[in-house]
Amino acid sequence: MRSLKLADGARVPLVGQGTWHMGENPAERGNEIAALRLGIELGMTLIDTAEMYAEGGAEEVVGEAIRSCRDQVFLVSKVYPHNASRKGVPEACERSLRRLGTDCLDLYLLHWRGQYPLAETVEAFERLKEAGKIRRWGVSNLDLDDMRELDAPDCAVNQVLYNPQERGIEFDLLPWCQAQGMPVMAYCPLGQGGGLLRHQAILDIARRHGAEPAQIALAWSLRQPEVLVIPKSSNPAHVRLNASAAELTLSADDLALLDKAFPPPSRSQPLQMV
After folding, report:
1. pTM of whole model > 0.90?
2. Residue 274 falls within a domain, yes or no?
3. CA within 20 to 30 Å of 172's CA: 24, 100, 141, 192, which one?
């Protein structure tokens, strides 16, 4: 698995594992745990979760999945904005650690901006670092103005929506993050509802490469420097396809066809999030 280097020298795989919607259906719990463990075996050792996902249920699934292999995993979770205060951050972190069955997060993110000043949240994150509860911190769903206001070299990543249908960050936010050497973690890299993977341009390129549409979508995001992706799947076959997408390189012709199907932004756009 190809990897990307964070500012502090830590390396993370270009393809990690998302967990949004995991933990919502008890009947799927076994499949979800098995899929996460398979992903780890295949090199997708970054696992992203959040206290919001199934109101802690996804963290419990992840905790069970990594119980015997915590030291192999780069573990990411996120704090709700309404918990992102000086007092709320450490309390939320402790709850997440308990559900995940670990004593330290590799990365802790502000899920999106809320009512508390960014400086207050950052102060709380730094205290967690000093206490050994988290190794690094970052943000999610922050636009360029937010990032400039944050003005924090210690921010490890910005996790945002990015796929061929949602390219708005390419105009300003993505270039800014790349110039800072700050990785962008792309969520929903396969789109939502399956429409992206049924688009004729994606299907044509997949046929050309003898690949699956999901692999084309992931390879498209990974063409950008400083970008990693976190697709979610509880299907073993899909997990294997996701893991191998990092080895797929799209040609200039492929990229031109995708630009025609999904035009890049020509102006600044409001940051999209789901």
Report:
1. yes
2. no
3. 192
Long-range CB contact pairs, 196-201, < 8 A, 24+: 196/163, 196/164, 196/165, 199/164, 199/261, 200/261, 201/257, 201/258, 201/260, 201/261, 201/262
Segment 33-59, tens digit of pLDDT: 999 999 999 999 999 999 999 999 999
85 in any annotated domain: yes
Domain coverage including residue 89: 3-261
What's 79's domain CATH number? 3.20.20.100
Alpha-carbon gap, residue 169 to 257, rounded angstroms: 20
Residue 161 lies in a domain: yes
With tokens 């990365």, the residue in question is: 107
How many structural domains comprise the chain? Answer: 1
Q: How far apart are the first and last CA of the chain?
A: 28
Q: Which residues are the active-site residues?
A: 53
Locate the DSSP E strands across the chain: 3-5, 11-13, 46-48, 74-79, 107-110, 137-140, 155-161, 184-187, 227-229
